[in-house]
Amino acid sequence: MLPIIPKVNSEKILSDKLFNYTLEDVVNIKDDSIKKSGYKLTIDGDGVKVYASDDDGFYYGKMTVLNLLEMMGALPHCEIEDAPRYVYRGYMLDCARHFFSVETVKRMIDIMPRFKLNVFHWHLTEDQGWRIQIDKYPLLTEIGSYRDGTRGDGKPIKGYYTKEEMREVVAYAKERHIEVMPEFDIPGHTAAAIAAYPYLDCNNSVIGVKDSFGIHPEVLCAGKESSYEFVTDVLKEIFEIFPFNLIHLGGDEALRLHWLDCKECQRVMEENNLKDEDELQAHFMARIVEFCKGYGKTVINWNDGMVGENVHDDVIVHYWQGAEVNRNAAVREINRGKKGIISPFFSYYLDYPYGLTSLKKCFSCNPEIDGVTATENIMGVEGPLWAEYVKNQKDIDRQTFPRLIAIAERGWSEWHQDYKGFRTRLKYNYKIIDKLGIECDRIEKVDPNPIAKIISLVKFFGNAWDKTQLQNAKNVAENKKRLKAKYGK
Ligand code: ACM
Ligand code: ZN
Description:
By secondary structure, this protein is an alpha/beta fold. The protein is built from 17 helices and 18 strands. Acetamide (ACM) binds next to loops.
C-alpha cells in the first residue's frame, strides 16, 4: 500500500509511466540479503519482480502490487525497498461485549494484510459474554455466552465460536500471513465465567452475565487452588485451537474488593510475603505463565495488571494505560528488558469518537513512549476496537477506518511526523477502502473542527452514560479507599 512505502516519494510514483501488468505477472526472486519480512519491488519494461528472503516478504511485495493496481488502475514504473519497523502489527476486535459472526471476523482478516498488519488479537472473554467453546466447562457457553439485554434494552445478545469455527479462522488468517492471538482475560473481566461457575469468585457470588459495562467487582479468586485449575484447564483447550506462540491473558482492571476480604487470597499473600494485592495478582499470573511456558507460549498482560514488583520476567507488556502508577510500571518493566506492545488508549483505541481521537491524534502518537530508553524492546503496535457500543459490521468499519491505517503505518514505517504527507497518501488509500467495501468517514470528517468535536463527544458520552456507570465508578472509588485504608497510599 502506498502509505507504507517509506523510502519512495509517492508523488513521483504516481506520475511515472504506467504498465498494463496484473498480479499474475509478479515474478518472485529469492534474495537472502533482504531483511526478514521485507521485499524489494521493481516494475519496469522487464516486468514486475519481487525480491525477498522469506514468504512474508514475497507476500507483502504482492500486497503492494495489488494496492498500487487498485489505487491507480495500472502499475507505475518504480523501485521500492520496504521492510517492517516492528514484528508485531496488530488489530484487536472485542467479540465479547457484542458477538460478531465468523464471516465478519474473516472479513476483517481479509482486510488486515492490505495494510500489512500481521496479528489478529481476538478478545473472547468478558464480563458481558464468554465466546469460546470449552468442553470441560460446558456452562461457560451454556450460561456465559448469553445475556438478556444491554443496559435494560431487553434485546438478548448471544453467541460463541465452536472449536471448529475458531480453527477455521486460524487457517484463514494463516493464508493471509496473520497470526490469531486469543485473549482469555483474567483475573478481572470474568463475570460471565463466574455466572457459570460461582466458585471462581472469592465469595462464590451468584450473579448473571453482566448487561452493563465498566468495571465489576467479581473477579477470579487468586487464592483458591480451584481458580488455578480452572484457568489451566481452559488454557489447555485454547492451546489445542490456537498455534500462535503468544497468549493474551488480560490482567486489566481487576478490582481488589473481594480479595481484600478473602481468607484464601490473604493466606496466599502471607505465605508468599506479598506486600500488596498488585503482588498477589503478579504471583497468581506468574504461576500461569510457568504453565504456559510448558506449552511453548509467552503471556501478554495489559500494563495496569503489571504494577507489582514481582511480575514474571517473561510477560510481555501491553501498554494502554497512562495513569501514573501504571505508566511508571510499564516504563520500568520495558526498560528492565520486557517486550512491549503499544496501544495508548487516547490515541490508538478505535472505539472512541473522532471528536476525542482524531486521525491526527492517532497518527501523531509515537510508539516509543516517554521514558522508555530501551526502545529495542518495543515489539510493535496495536489498534484495539472495544465493542461496548459497536454492534455490527457497519459500526466496526466506521470506528476502525481510517484510523487503523495510521496505526498500521506506525507499525510498518519509520517514525516521522509528517501528517500532511500521511493525509496525501490516505487519499489514495480511500480507493482501497472503497474497493474493499469499507464504509467509514471520509477524509474531511476525521479531524473534526471544535464544533463538530463537541457534537461528537456529546453524542458519544450521552450514549455511553447511564446509572450503571455510576455504580461502576463507586466500585472503583471503594476499591481505592479500601487500599488506601490498608496501605496508607
Ligand atoms: C483495557 O482497555 N481495559 C485494556
Ligand atoms: Zn480470594
